[in-house]
């Protein structure tokens, strides 16, 4: 786990029955994930090397946004660049920003991360920035427009929502990640 100024890591460990790795990611970690509340270049060189070597990575909320080239939230902070796109602030289109609360995901193609999770399942969101649709999009959500809810790019996985707050759907997603 690569936490960055967020309560999410504690919520994940309390709600998912998943044992997490310490913030200082050891070289033996079999999986990595990152959550946070602001776009940043928060990843350590060790963790970057592990991701580059093919260790499965799950980005949660801003962690997913970090997988992209960057974000208009912090244009000076480069993302991983695995997906050639930029996160943008929601165009309000009459909707309240930030987007906080329950919303549905719609699967657009098969996904290892979403195995056993149905289209139309509700998940919990809290965000003001969103990733556009890309070739790596496996699920979308509608809120003032359609955006990527779940990305899957090789061994990199990202969810814009908070699985640790999404009840049984979130637990299933985290289990799927741990079973990779």
The count of strands amounts to 12
Percentage of β-strand residues: 25-35%
Give the overall form: globular
Cα-to-Cα separation, first versus last residue = 16 Å
Strand order of the largest sheet: 1-2-3-12-11-10-7
Structural class: alpha/beta
So, CATH architecture? Answer: 3-Layer(aba) Sandwich
Look at the structure and give the mean pLDDT.
81
Number of domains: 1
CATH homologous superfamily identity? Class I glutamine amidotransferase (GATase) domain
Briefly, what is this?
The chain contains 4 helices and 12 strands; from the N terminus they run E-H-E-H-E-H-E-E-E-E-E-E-E-E-E-H.
Structure description:
Helix content is 18%, strand content 32%. It is an alpha/beta fold. It has a single domain, classed as Class I glutamine amidotransferase (GATase) domain (Rossmann fold, 3-Layer(aba) Sandwich), CATH 3.40.50. The strands form 3 sheets. A 7-stranded mixed β-sheet has the order 1-2-3-12-11-10-7. Strands 4-5-9 form a 3-stranded mixed β-sheet. Strands 6-8 form a two-stranded antiparallel ribbon.
């Amino acid at each position: 786990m690569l936490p960055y100024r967020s309560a999410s890591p504690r919520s994940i460990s309390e709600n998912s029955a998943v044992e997490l790795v310490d913030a200082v990611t050891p070289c033996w970690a079999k999986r990595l994930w990152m959550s946070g509340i602001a776009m940043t270049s928060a990843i350590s060189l060790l963790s970057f090397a592990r991701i580059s070597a093919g260790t499965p990575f799950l980005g949660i909320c801003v962690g997913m946004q970090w997988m992209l080239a960057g974000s208009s939230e912090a244009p000076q902070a480069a993302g991983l660049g695995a997906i050639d796109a930029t996160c943008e602030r929601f165009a309000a289109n009459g909707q309240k920003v930030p987007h906080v609360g329950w919303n549905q995901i719609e699967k657009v193609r098969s996904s290892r991360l979403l195995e056993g999770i149905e289209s139309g399942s509700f998940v919990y969101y809290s965000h003001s920035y969103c990733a556009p649709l890309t070739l790596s999009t496996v699920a979308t959500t509608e809120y003032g427009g359609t955006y990527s809810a779940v990305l899957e790019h090789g061994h990199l996985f990202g969810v814009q929502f908070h699985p640790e707050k999404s009840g049984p759907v979130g637990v299933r997603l985290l289990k799927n990640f741990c079973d990779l």
